[in-house]
Design a protein that fits this description.
Number of helices: 9
Distance between the termini: 6 Å
Keywords: Isomerase
Family: Belongs to the HAD-like hydrolase superfamily. CbbY/CbbZ/Gph/YieH family.
InterPro entries: B-phosphoglucomutase_hydrolase, Beta-PGM, HAD-like_sf, HAD-like_SPP, HAD-SF_hydro_IA, HAD_sf, PGP-like_dom2
Strand order of the largest sheet: 3-2-1-4-5-6
Order of helices and strands: EHHHHHEHEHEHEEH
Structural class: alpha/beta
Strand content: 5-15%
Bound molecules: 1,6-di-O-phosphono-beta-D-glucopyranose, magnesium ion
Organism: Anoxynatronum sibiricum
Protein name: Beta-phosphoglucomutase
């Protein structure tokens, strides 16, 4: 029986992916190479420095540690600027209802995000009260597909991994959930979410209750 849900943030609860994309694209443009949506798919769900390394690999650049840190900081400055535009429209379809119903059912809920901006985003959108526990890029040292973020979430909820369902929009996150010994539900396109027990286009298409029954 599943008793806890762990949600990724970007791409599952809120649509912040477009702001990450804009900021990475701007950085690539400054360095003189182009970066498209197919390339961007590889950056989803992974931590900031790892995402930068993938970007630099795409651009064929090898840079010093200091320069890489500087570039990651610049990207984050732009990303945080773009987040100023964030409003309730960025909350993905069905997300709030699904969270509400999960809690009404007595399920425990955690956030498991790679983002170091997760709490700022949740606060801005009044979503903090829907989570018992927040685990984000500030409390982890290893990026998805390492299971750390979800393992910490389950521990904080006091639930065994086998009782947890992870909702993820990125392959790295699905792999992290499976590496943690949890059930993964993919949110997005099936071709980017291999290994998920189920792939849905958004949280709008199912209820927590029907999911629990499906996963029995
Ligand atoms: P930040 P998630 C991830 O969030 C994003 O999908 C990924 O694109 C980003 O690089 C990562 O957070 C780090 O974000 O730069 O804000 O710390 O999908 O794990 O909620
Ligand atoms: Mg995500």
């Amino acid at each position: 029986m599943k008793t806890a849900f762990i949600f990724d943030l970007d791409g599952v609860i809120v649509d912040t992916a477009k702001y990450h994309y804009l900021a990475w694209q701007r950085l690539a443009a400054e360095m003189g190479f182009s970066f498209d949506e197919t390339d961007n798919e590889r950056l989803k769900g992974v931590g900031r420095m790892q995402a930068l390394d993938i970007l630099l690999e795409i651009g064929g650049l090898s840079l010093t540690e200091d320069r890489r840190i500087q570039l990651a900081q610049q990207k984050n400055i732009w990303y945080v600027e773009y987040l100023e535009m964030l409003n309730q429209d960025a909350v993905l379809p069905g997300a709030v209802n699904f969270l509400k119903k999960s809690r009404q059912l007595g399920l425990k809920t955690a956030l498991g995000s790679a983002s170091r901006n997760a709490s700022t985003i949740l606060k801005k959108l009044d979503l903090l009260p829907y989570f018992d526990v927040i685990v984000d890029g500030n409390s982890t040292t290893r990026a998805k597909p390492d299971p750390e973020v979800f393992v910490l979430g389950a521990k904080a909820l006091n639930e065994p991994p086998s009782s947890c369902v992870v909702f993820e929009d990125a392959q790295a996150g699905i792999d992290a959930a499976l590496n943690a010994g949890m059930t993964a539900v993919g949110v997005g396109l099936p071709e980017h979410l291999e290994g998920a027990a189920l792939v849905i286009p958004s949280l709008q298409v199912l209820t927590p209750q029907s999911l629990i029954i499906q996963l029995l």
